[in-house]
UniProtKB/TrEMBL annotation:
Keywords: Membrane, Transmembrane, Transmembrane helix. The chain crosses the membrane at residues 9-31. It is found in: Membrane. Its main location: membrane. It holds the Pfam family Band_7. It is a single-pass membrane protein. Residues 26-190 form the Band domain. It comes from Maribellus luteus. One of its GO terms (cellular component) is membrane. This is Prohibitin family protein.
Length: 272
């Protein structure tokens, strides 16, 4: 029987087509922008944590498995009930923004898997919020130390997630809801504190003004005392003589001198 090369090519082509149809979905991978892939080789080296596949077209053996991760910045919103320092229940809405470290996908997959958001991120955010809230009172969380509470939650959550291959971009406390009675009491207290501060400011201002006036009055009194002590009879007589001379030398004055005053100064009459 003569061997037919043409028939052999057809058989090979058919076999190749069958392989592509059966395993094409596992052999040919397209990683989209904003994604990274990590490959698992079950029959040889296992999980390849060091080689991360970037976006584009990739061909892998059909018996290997490619895990694709979304490494874009993601956002989750959580509503939770936490207890304050005194055991009061507080309802809190939190938003967290994060993304996996691009080069650590293999380690993330080994430790947490593709469901890392629900296994790692959300539980850690909840845990940090509860731990931090437990160190403050409801009033501090709601008003006086809200920024401090938020920063403490951010710091502790970022540290924990960073140790587990997650880059936390931001964590925001959207709202803090207290029981109506507690909220009303806190707001009333804050209003009273503001009114008290306003009264203290007004009192301080008026006290300062009174002190300024007292100092001014003392200055005027001291000035008058010094002037009075310096005005002796001789000085007054000298000032009188100078004034008489100035008046006599005035071009518009017509002067008539009649005797002298009791202090020895002449009397000057007339003038236009």
């Amino acid at each position: 029987m003569k061997f037919n090369f043409k028939s052999s090519y057809v058989v090979i082509a058919v076999i190749g087509l069958i392989v592509i149809l059966l395993f094409g979905g596992r052999m040919f991978m397209i990683i989209e922008p904003g994604e990274r892939g990590v490959i698992f080789r079950p029959y040889t080296s296992g999980l390849d944590k060091d080689n991360i596949y970037t976006e584009g077209f990739h061909v892998i053996a059909p018996w290997n498995d490619m895990k694709v991760y979304n490494v874009r910045e993601q956002q989750r919103e959580e509503t939770m009930d936490v207890l304050d320092k005194n055991g009061l229940s507080i309802n809190t809405d939190v938003t967290v923004r994060f993304n996996p470290h691009y080069t650590q996908i293999g380690h993330l997959h080994e430790k947490f898997g593709v469901n890392f958001v629900n296994v790692l991120v959300i539980p850690e955010v909840r845990s940090s919020v509860r731990q931090v809230a437990g160190r403050y009172t409801a009033e501090e969380i709601y008003s006086t130390k809200r920024a401090e509470v938020e920063q403490a939650i951010i710091s502790e959550t970022r540290e924990t997630l960073g140790e587990n291959f997650i880059d936390m971009k931001a964590l925001l406390i959207r709202s803090i809801n207290l029981p109506a009675q507690i909220k009303g009491a806190i707001e009333a207290k804050l209003q009273q504190e503001q009114e008290s501060l306003a009264y203290e400011y007004k009192l301080t201002k008026e006290t300062a003004e009174a002190e300024r006036r007292r100092i001014e009055a003392e200055g005027i009194a001291n000035y008058n005392r010094i002037i009075n002590e310096s005005l002796t009879d001789k000085i007054l007589k000298q000032r009188g003589i100078e004034a008489t001379q100035d008046l006599a030398e005035s071009p518009n004055a017509k002067v008539v001198v009649i005797g002298s005053g009791k202090d020895g100064l002449p009397l000057i009459l007339g003038g236009n």
